[in-house]
Design goal:
Length: 414
């Protein structure tokens, strides 16, 4: 690999504002050094292009030995030339030495050493031995790629079978704050989908690595290999920098999750004890424990979500904020009946208007309360009065079904 040299390395202990600036002199896609100064009407870019062409022509002419490289002092022009025989490759003036922070002779020696090393490697890369070695490496890389594809293709079905064996045993259901979110079957399906994505990523990554390696084995495509590697390097560097920058927010989200989780566990334990009668408060009935816990759980989760929202990835982007506003409007405009049922459920619960086991008449229907939640009120053993004048116990026709009534209609009905 060619050695990259620039003025930035001339005096590491005394960095200057001109570090890594100027026009690069390249050979075979590798930067040798930089030209920073203008001489007369010749810009640094023009000088660097001319020097690059001269060094490239010298490197390709294998009949000209490296021993012909020499440094020639031109006292009349106050310059130092690097020549290959009688052909001038680089001219170093006082302005170049000042820009590099060195003397003309020191800078010329540095350039000469860099040119020798780069030309030696350039010529070696085009030799027959190098091309044969590149072909052999390509064959080995191809075999390794095919073997890797076969190994991945055969191992993934075995992983799927093992996941199905562990379903319900080593792979439990996924729960959050005591509420089951995904069953073990769904968890296995989710892991299977993740494995499919990982398998595809492995295939693409191995193929990308293979192409990059094969291109780097030959001098004609080595520059393209560097470009492809630069793409993935830039992407990984950006991703890594983003992850490092997000670590404080991630730590804060983990703290919020831990505090919320343990707070809900304590609250659940408290209301469970109240429901079982182990803890009593004057005026607080046992049947209030479960709905009160649900209300407190909702408030705690809403508060945690509000606190955590600014720390979510992309929460400050206009797209994320626009989606949040749209969802807020959607909920506000489309949930009026749901909100009415929720408030009616709260009122009916804490006024104890209907208890489990009560028989309630709603127009011509009599129903027995079978349970309740914040939105609806299940009733069992539907009974219908057919308008008979006989006593009530002889007028019921038990239908034996279960109905669900929206709670918002109960306070308004008879």
């Amino acid at each position: 690999m060619a050695t990259t040299v620039s003025f930035a390395y001339s005096q590491p202990s005394s960095p200057t504002p001109t570090q890594q600036t100027g026009a690069p002199v390249v050979l075979g896609g590798e930067t040798l050094f930089y030209i920073q100064a203008r001489i007369a009407s010749f810009s640094p870019e023009f000088r660097a292009q001319v020097v690059s062409n001269r060094i490239s022509a010298f490197a390709k002419d294998t009949e000209v030995s490296l021993d012909t490289l020499k440094i020639v002092e031109n006292e009349e022009a106050a310059t130092v030339d690097i020549r290959a025989g009688e052909q001038t490759l680089v001219t170093i003036a006082d302005v170049d030495a000042v820009a590099a922070g060195q003397s003309r002779q020191e800078l010329a020696n540095q350039y000469l050493q860099t040119i020798k090393e780069s030309v030696t490697e350039f010529r070696a890369s085009y030799s027959v031995q190098s091309l044969i070695r590149g072909a052999a490496y390509t064959l080995i890389a191809t075999v390794v790629l095919i073997a890797s594809f076969i190994a991945i293709a055969k191992s993934v079905p075995n992983i799927y079978r093992q996941l199905r064996r562990w379903r319900g045993t080593r792979i439990p259901a996924l729960s959050l704050f005591g509420t089951q979110i995904l069953s073990s079957h769904r968890v296995v399906d989710l892991i299977s989908e993740i494995i499919k994505v990982v398998r595809l990523a492995l295939f693409l990554g191995l193929l990308y690595l293979y192409i990059n390696l094969v291109l780097s084995f030959f001098p004609w495509t080595k520059g393209l290999a560097r470009v492809l590697f630069g793409y993935i390097q830039t992407a990984l560097a950006t991703l890594g920098a983003g992850l490092l920058a997000y670590l404080p927010n991630l730590f804060f989200l983990i703290v919020i999750w831990l505090l919320t989780s343990y707070s809900l566990k304590v609250i659940r334990f408290l209301f469970t004890e109240i429901e079982q009668g182990d803890i009593t408060f004057p005026g607080f009935y046992r049947e209030w424990a479960k709905p009160t816990y649900k209300l407190v759980q909702f408030l705690v989760l809403a508060f945690a979500a509000t606190v955590a929202f600014p720390y979510l990835p992309g929460s400050q982007t206009p797209a994320f904020q626009g989606i949040s506003i749209f969802l807020g409007l959607l909920v506000s405009l489309g949930s009026s009946s749901a909100i009415a049922n929720i408030f009616a459920g709260i009122i009916l619960t804490y006024t104890r208007a209907f208890l489990v086991g009560d028989r309630v008449k709603n127009y011509r229907y009599y129903r027995r309360c079978g349970g309740e939640n914040l939105i609806c009120h299940p009733h069992s053993h539907d009974q219908k009065m057919w308008g008979s004048p006989f006593p009530m116990q002889r007028c019921w026709a038990v239908m034996g079904s279960i109905t669900v009534l929206p709670l918002a209609i109960l306070p308004r009905r008879r």
